[in-house]
Amino acid sequence: MKERLEEIKTKGLEKIENAKTLVELEEVKKDLTGKKSKLAEVFKNMGSLSADEKKSVGMLTTEIKNVFAEKLSRKEEEIISNMSVLDRPIDITIPGAPVKSGALHPITQMRNDLNEAFASLGFEVYTEDDISSEKYAFDNLNFAKDHPARQSMDTYWIEGTEDKEGAERLCLKPHLTGGSVRYLLKHGAPARFVYPGKVFRNETTDARHERAFYQYEALIVDKDISFSSGMVMIQTILEKVFGKKINTRMREGFFPFTEPGYEIDMECLVCGGVGCKVCNHNGWIEVMPGGVIHPNVLKSAGLNPDEWTGFYINIGLDRLVMMRYGVDDVRLFHSSDLRFLKEFK
Ligand SMILES: [Zn+2]
C-alpha cells in the first residue's frame, strides 16, 4: 500500500510540474485531489486494513495531500508570474487601492487665485530671481543711502559682496519691488503686471513674521491712473479671492518708492473683527501696503514722471492665506508638516 502511495505522489508531482497553463493546472488539481482521484480511492478502500495500517496509511495520505496542495499553489504562482500582465486573472471582487493625490500648498493656491483675478483685469505675470542687488532692491527705489533696510539687521547680504556697491552688492530679495523697475526697463510703459515671489528678511520669527515669506506685488503704469481707480481694483481683487465683500480701511503709509503711500487693512477674518492674536487684538490686519509710484522710481525705469503715473499694490500672501483659513500662526504654513497641510486639500 505504501508503495502504491509513493507512486501516486511521484507521478502526481510530475504532472503538476508539467502543467503549462492555469487551465492545465486546474485539470491536474482535479485529477490529484478530486473525489475520483487515486488518493480518494485509497481512502475508500481502507476498510479491509488493520487498525495500525489504517493509521499509517491515513497519515501518509494526508501528508501527500498537503504536499500536492503546496506544490499546486507554488506552480500557480509560477505560471502567473510568467504571464503577461494582460493575461493574468483579475479578481474584480477585491476592493481597489485608494488613489493618493497630492494638493497645492495653500500659499500656492492663493497665488494662483490672485494670478487669475489679476489676469481677468489684463495683468501679465512676471517672475524674478531670488538674488537681487543693492541697485534694484534700494537705489532704483528711492531708498535713502542711510535707510535702515539697507543694514544687515534687515537684509541678507551675500557674503563676499558686502564691501561693494550698487549692482555689485548682492542680497536675497528683501521685497519684490525691485522687479518693477526691471520689468519697466525691459518692457516700457504703459504696463500692468504682477510679480509674485519669495522674499527674505533678517528678523526674529513670531506668529506674524517669518524670515522667508511670499509676497505678491502688482503695478499698473499708465498716463491716467487715478487713486480711486486703484482702490476699486483692490476691492475687486479681494472680492474675487474671498468670494465676498471684504471690509477694508486705508491709512497713510510711508514707503520710499511711493508718493503718496498708504496701508490697506482688511477686517480680520480669523476673529471677525473682534480682536485676536493675529490682528494684534485690534480687529484689523495690514495686508496691502502700496501707493502711487514715486517720480524718482519712474526716472530709474527710464520713464518721464510728467508723462506717466502708476499705482503699486503689495499683497502679503501669507496673511491672506491666514485670513482665508482662519489660521493664527504663519509659521505653520512653512513647517512642511503634512498633517497640517493635508487639512487644506
Ligand atoms: Zn483677529
How would you describe this protein?
This protein is an alpha+beta fold and 345 residues long. It folds into 2 domains: 2-87, no CATH class; 106-344, Bira Bifunctional Protein, Domain 2 (BirA Bifunctional Protein, domain 2), CATH 3.30.930. It has 11 helices and 10 strands. It has helices spanning 2-18, 22-33, 38-44, 51-82, 106-119, 134-137, 178-187, 227-242, 295-300, 317-325, 338-341, and strands spanning 124-125, 131-133, 170-172, 191-194, 197-200, 212-222, 248-253, 258-267, 284-293, 309-316. The strands form 2 sheets. Strands 1, 4, 5, 6, 7, 8, 9 and 10 form an 8-stranded mixed beta sheet that branches. The longest helix has 32 residues, at 51-82. The radius of gyration is 38 Å and the shape is rod-shaped. The structure holds zinc ion. Zinc ion is lined by residues 268, 270-271, 275-276, 278-279. Zinc ion (ZN) is lined by residues 268, 270-271, 275-276, 278-279.
